[in-house]
């Protein structure tokens, strides 16, 4: 139903993005010459094996590779433009203030491992509340928003908002992560393998929750996964990544129905089987 | 990671050290060796006995001060004894006691660790409890109790240091033995008829070389400081045996007029402990030893 | 430290800790009893001219020394619980009274140093982990490294020379005004600052690599908030047990600091007891110091429970 050629508002465009990490014995190029566009309201899936550079790219959008909070040095080149209603922000090389504003208001992110992504010593409600720290409204209104979003993701009540992460199940933790990302009503949600670590039944619940949240606030979503089955469920368009490059990009039905690239075909053929070649050449995505 | 696996010790001791380039560890080792040699060669370097009193040359300053002379390069103490000679002989005393104490504690700790690891069960739990208790009780008080009981002879110091410092070795050895037990080849050798002790010696000890090297280097300064501390308090090495700690302690009353009486032995002690610390840290990084056993 | 992971939740954890503390004190009493018995009967000192065999047997009966060892130990423990630590063999003074007079000074300097070490050591370690390239922080860390290798008595003498004799701005003996506390406290704190800064740095570096820091970044928090609420908060958890382990070292240090600065603390009682082989006096020190360490460790364990909800609330 979604046609990229129809007049939809452009939200994010990446052109010739290169991401490389400094490691002990040289430089690893995680992403090479990547270009893609995300439109308002759509879901773009980014698929590929572990280590193909999906996550490295996703984290580059929010400039999450920078010290002091990461230990590896990382270089990002190219252009990532974020289109706001009134202006366009260049995210590559943006200063800390701009990036923080983007993270705070525009782009949310959820991660694969919800257990380690939640702070073990802070109560859930506080962790969601924190995402609103800099919103200029009264604290009581912030707490109201927190309980609303927790309700929406199915973690309503003080029982959950006062819980610590280790007291929740895997699915509940991922719901909490979605609440943290969605409470600010971002225009774009980056979901980095959000269902990979979960049971199949829980996966389905989380996916439908993501779709519901997306529909209710008209977010775009960049959905990163190595599970092609999930792509059918959530995305309109798909980009296939291999060894840091995008090898194929188009509508899901088109790409999966008639793959042009040899790698995409291999990926499709191997789909039902267990994940192969886990050993990543690049640092784990 | 690979170094801390129980198998890594199967390669020879020297293989570890081949990877070490001439850097911090080497430089510090050479300097430390220099200090040890100074102590060993004390009778050759200085012709003055450390105990010779010269009341006519009391509190002489070191050579670079006005009134100093090359006869007493580091000056003299309040009884006119040569500071250089006393420092050199003090190095001997300190190293001697620390080395013997350390050997005693290592033998004790390694044996206890092997026994606890091999026997397991209650013996093991008892060991872990005792090591916990030893961490809790202030070491110095135990040392003092031992001295009240046994007196201040040098062998008492050595034995007490050994009795107090074995726990680190026991812990690490026990950990290694347990890891090997998990791997099962001790059981295999056991089936093949090897005695437990033989197994322990043949399989466990080679794996312990690098962690033990690191612990020995890192605990040497603290053992040395135990002796120096007790001597400083006046309850360690007794006169006339020259001891760095005792010199610092007795120079305390003369700080204003003759700082070198405390200062010189302080510099010697700090150099020794600092060098050991640097070497130990460097070795730990290079051999990738984790000491949490 | 690794043994902190206990199943059974808060009750199991705390009761385990209390049992351990009690067992530890039991071992301390046992050691103290054995050393006391080995160091000879008090009669030798009370009657230096010797006793007749009959007299000795009568005395042994009177002081219950003819009972089997475990009965004697029971008596010994009962006495100690009643607060009866005996008298000094040398002066005949009540041991308890000797210490009561001197304990406040020791505890004051000790707890002050602990406070200073925490206030300086933790931020220093934390900053050195956050600003790894900063020259000032690296320099401070090197100084701290020096503090690791230098014993209390050398630090003390160095500070006396510098502040007392060269600069002449601080007093170097006794504890009359707050200025008298400065040098002893710093001397005692420096090695502990070194330890805490070092462990804090490692714990911070460990926390920095964790995923929840990415989450915090993605929320748009400021660097300061991330460092404070996420990294520092988590790094504190392992540090708490390090503080507990360092208490024993701190108490050892008070003895040196009191000697160096001639403070009216218990250090001199202890050293005097050793010089005169006055075991009842030393025995009190051994038990009291161990009790302090055990108690502080118990408090530290409770803090651990507060800091780490995974222990507090169980799995």
Task: Describe the protein's architecture and organization.
The complex is a heterotrimer of chains A (285), B (293) and C (315). Chain A has one domain: 3-Layer(aba) Sandwich (Rossmann fold), CATH 3.40.50. Helix content of chain A is 35%, strand content 26%. Chain A is built from 11 helices and 10 strands. In chain A, the strands form 2 sheets. Chain A has a 6-stranded mixed sheet, with helices on both faces. In chain A, strands 2-1-4-5 form a 4-stranded antiparallel sheet, covered by helices on one side. In chain A, helix 4 runs parallel beside helix 7 (170-182), helix 5 (139-152) crosses helix 7 (170-182) and helix 7 runs parallel beside helix 8. Chain B is mainly alpha-helical and 293 residues long. Chain B has helices at 13-18, 24-40, 42-45, 83-119, 121-136, 139-150, 154-165, 167-183, 185-191, 196-233, 244-251, 260-287. Chain C is 77% helix and 0% strand. Chain C is flat. At the B-C interface, helix 5, helix 6, helix 10, helix 11 and helix 12 of B face helix 1, helix 6, helix 7, helix 10 and helix 11 of C.
Q: Uncertain regions of chain B: pLDDT < 50 for 5+ in a row?
A: 1-14
Number of strands of chain A: 10
Portion in helices of chain A = 25-40%
Number of helices of chain A: 11
Q: What does the average pLDDT of chain A come to? A: 83
Quote the average pLDDT of chain B. 79
Tell me the quaternary state.
heterotrimer
Q: Structural class given helices, strands, pairing of chain A?
A: alpha/beta
Please list the strands of the largest sheet of chain A in the order they lie side by side.
6-7-8-3-9-10
Tell me the span between the first and last alpha carbons of chain B. 14 Å
Under CATH, the homologous superfamily of chain A reads P-loop containing nucleotide triphosphate hydrolases
* Rg measurement of chain B, Å: 22 Å
Element-by-element helix/strand order of chain A:
EEEHEEHEHHHHHEHEHEEHH
């Amino acid at each position: 139903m979604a046609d990229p050629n129809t007049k939809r508002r452009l939200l994010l465009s990446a052109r010739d993005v290169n991401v490389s990490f400094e490691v002990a014995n040289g430089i690893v190029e995680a992403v090479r010459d990547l270009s893609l566009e995300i439109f308002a309201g759509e879901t773009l899936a980014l698929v590929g094996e572990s280590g193909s550079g999906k996550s490295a790219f996703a984290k580059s959008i929010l400039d999450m590779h920078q010290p002091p909070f990461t230990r590896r040095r990382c270089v990002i080149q190219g252009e990532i433009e974020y289109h706001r209603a009134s202006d366009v922000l260049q995210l590559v090389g943006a200063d800390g203030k701009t990036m923080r504003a983007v993270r705070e208001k525009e782009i949310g992110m959820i991660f694969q491992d919800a257990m380690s992504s939640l702070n073990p010593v802070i109560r859930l409600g506080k962790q969601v509340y924190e995402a609103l720290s800099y919103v200029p409204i009264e604290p009581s209104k912030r707490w109201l928003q927190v309980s609303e979003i927790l309700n929406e993701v199915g973690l309503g009540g003080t029982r959950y908002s006062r819980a610590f992460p280790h007291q929740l199940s895997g699915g509940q933790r991922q719901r909490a992560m979605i609440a943290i990302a969605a409470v600010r009503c971002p225009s774009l949600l980056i979901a980095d393998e959000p269902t990979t670590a979960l049971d199949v039944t829980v996966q389905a619940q989380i996916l439908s929750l993501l779709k519901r949240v997306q529909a209710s606030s008209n977010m775009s979503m960049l959905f990163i996964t190595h599970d092609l089955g999930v792509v059918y469920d959530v995305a309109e368009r798909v980009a296939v990544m291999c060894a840091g490059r995008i090898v194929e990009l188009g509508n899901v039905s088109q790409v999966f129905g008639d793959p042009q690239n040899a790698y995409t075909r291999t990926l499709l053929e191997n789909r039902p089987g267990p994940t192969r070649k886990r050993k990543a050449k690049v640092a784990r995505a | 990671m690979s170094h801390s696996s129980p198998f890594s010790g199967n390669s020879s001791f020297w293989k570890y050290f081949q990877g070490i380039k001439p850097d911090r560890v080497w430089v510090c080792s050479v300097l430390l060796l220099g200090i040890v040699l100074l102590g060993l060669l004390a009778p050759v370097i200085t012709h003055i006995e450390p105990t010779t009193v010269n009341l006519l040359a009391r509190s002489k300053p070191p050579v670079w001060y006005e009134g100093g002379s090359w006869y007493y390069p580091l000056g003299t103490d309040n009884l006119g004894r040569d500071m250089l000679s006393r420092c050199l002989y003090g190095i001997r005393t300190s190293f001697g006691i620390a080395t013997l104490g350390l050997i005693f504690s290592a033998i004790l700790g390694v044996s206890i660790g092997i026994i606890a690891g091999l026997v397991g069960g209650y013996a093991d739990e008892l060991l872990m409890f005792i090591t916990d208790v030893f961490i809790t009780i202030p070491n110095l008080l135990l040392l003092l109790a031992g001295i009240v009981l046994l007196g201040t002879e040098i062998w008492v110091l050595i034995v007490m240091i050994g009795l107090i410092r074995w726990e680190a070795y026991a812990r690490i050895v026990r950990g290694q033995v347990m890891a090997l037990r998990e791997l099962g080849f001790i059981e295999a050798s056991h089936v093949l008829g090897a005695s437990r002790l033989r197994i322990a010696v043949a399989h466990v000890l080679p794996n312990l070389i690098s962690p033990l090297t690191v612990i020995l280097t890192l605990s040497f300064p603290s053992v040395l400081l135990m002796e120096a501390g007790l001597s400083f308090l006046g309850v360690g090495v007794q006169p006339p045996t020259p001891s760095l700690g005792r010199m610092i302690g007795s120079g305390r009353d003369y700080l204003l007029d003759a700082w070198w009486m405390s200062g010189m032995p302080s510099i010697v002690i700090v150099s020794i402990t600092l060098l050991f610390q640097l070497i130990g840290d460097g070795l730990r990084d290079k051999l990738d030893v984790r000491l949490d056993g | 430290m690794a043994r902190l992971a206990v199943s059974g939740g808060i009750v199991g954890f705390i009761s385990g800790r209390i049992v351990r503390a009690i067992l530890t004190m039991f071992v301390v009493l046992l050691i103290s009893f054995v050393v006391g018995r080995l160091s000879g009967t008090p009669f030798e000192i009370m009657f230096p001219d010797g006793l007749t065999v009959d007299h000795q047997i009568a005395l042994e009966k009177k002081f219950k020394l003819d009972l089997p060892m475990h009965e004697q130990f029971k008596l010994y423990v009962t006495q100690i619980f009643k607060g009866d630590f005996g008298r000094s063999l040398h002066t005949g003074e009540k041991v308890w009274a000797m210490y009561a007079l001197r304990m406040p000074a020791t505890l004051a300097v000790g707890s002050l140093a602990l406070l200073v070490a925490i206030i300086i050591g933790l931020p220093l370690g934390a900053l050195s982990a956050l600003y790894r390239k900063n020259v000032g922080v690296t320099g401070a860390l090197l100084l701290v490294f020096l503090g690791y290798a230098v014993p209390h008595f050398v630090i003390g003498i160095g500070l006396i020379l510098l502040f007392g004799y060269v600069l002449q701005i601080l007093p170097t003996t006794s504890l009359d005004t707050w200025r008298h506390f400065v040098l002893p406290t710093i001397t005692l704190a420096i090695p502990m600052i070194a330890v805490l800064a070092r462990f804090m740095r490692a714990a911070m570096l460990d926390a920095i690599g964790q995923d929840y820091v990415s989450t915090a970044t993605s929320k748009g928090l400021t660097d300061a908030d991330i460092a404070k609420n996420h990294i520092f908060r988590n790094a504190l958890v392992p540090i708490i047990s390090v503080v507990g382990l360092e208490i024993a070292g701190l108490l050892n240090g008070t003895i040196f600091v009191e000697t160096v600065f001639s403070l009216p603390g218990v250090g001199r009682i202890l050293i005097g007891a050793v010089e005169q082989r006055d075991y009842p006096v030393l025995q009190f020190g051994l038990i009291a110091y161990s009790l302090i360490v055990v108690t502080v460790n118990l408090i530290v364990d409770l803090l651990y429970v507060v800091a780490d909800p995974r222990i507090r609330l169980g799995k």
